[in-house]
Each structure stands twice: as structure tokens, then as C-alpha cells.
Amino acid sequence: MAVELKVGRFEPEYLGKLEFYLEALDRDVRKPHENPAIGVLLCASKEDEVVEYALNRSLSPALVAEYQTQLPDKALLQAKLHEFYALNVFRGQGL
């Protein structure tokens, strides 16, 4: 899997670069029993029509999505981090 994060809006040329990475993964990293690499391109914004045109003839499995630049509430974030830590400590002890 290739994940690319862009700080600006989606540009069609980003997809070409992602396809380059996917081809490299498939040729040099993927094992014979594995499926082809999947690409995820996260952009600060996107225009659906531009993404549709860019993906229309693409042969590589790829997803283009927007991300949010605002963190959740501090208390919620702390609670989730504590929950995640507690879960991983619990698993790490083999209980």
C-alpha cells in the first residue's frame, strides 16, 4: 500500500506519481502470493469532477480523499490515546 499526503488541493499529476510508486511496489516489493498494491492519496481538498476524470482511465487501484486539518477536542484525543495505550499494554502482557 502506498499512502501519499498532499497539503494542497488534488492535482491530476499527483495520480501519475502515485501510480509510479504502485508500479515500483508491485515490481520490487510484492510477493507472488500478494495482490497488487493499492494507493491512497490524501489531499486538503478536491474537486470531484477533476478526480473523476483523473481516475477514469487509471488501471491502478487508487483512492483520492480529503483530510481535515483540525484536531478533535483535546479531552477526547487524550481519552483515545489513553484507551489505545491501555489496550496495547494489555495485549503486550499476553493477557
Could you give the order of the helices and strands?
EHEHEH
CATH fold group:
Double Stranded RNA Binding Domain
If you compute it from the alpha carbons, what radius of gyration comes out, rounded to the nearest whole angstrom? Answer: 18 Å
Largest sheet: 3 strands, parallel
Percentage of β-strand residues: 5-15%
CATH class: Alpha Beta
The largest sheet has its strands arranged as: 1-2-3
Unreliable stretches (pLDDT < 50, length at least 5) are none
Average pLDDT, rounded to a whole number, is: 87
How many domains, as an integer? 1
- Fraction of residues in H or I helices: 40-55%
End-to-end separation in angstroms reads 31 Å
Key attributes of the depicted protein:
alpha/beta; three-stranded parallel sheet; Double Stranded RNA Binding Domain; 3 helices; flat; 95 residues
Descriptive notes:
The chain contains 3 helices and 3 strands. Strands 1-2-3 form a 3-stranded parallel sheet, with helices on one face. The mean pLDDT is 87. It has 95 residues and is α/β, with parallel strands linked by helices. Helix 1 links the parallel strand 1 and strand 2 (39-43). It has one domain: Double Stranded RNA Binding Domain (2-Layer Sandwich), CATH 3.30.160. The chain is flat and about 45 Å long. 47% of the residues lie in helices and 15% in strands.
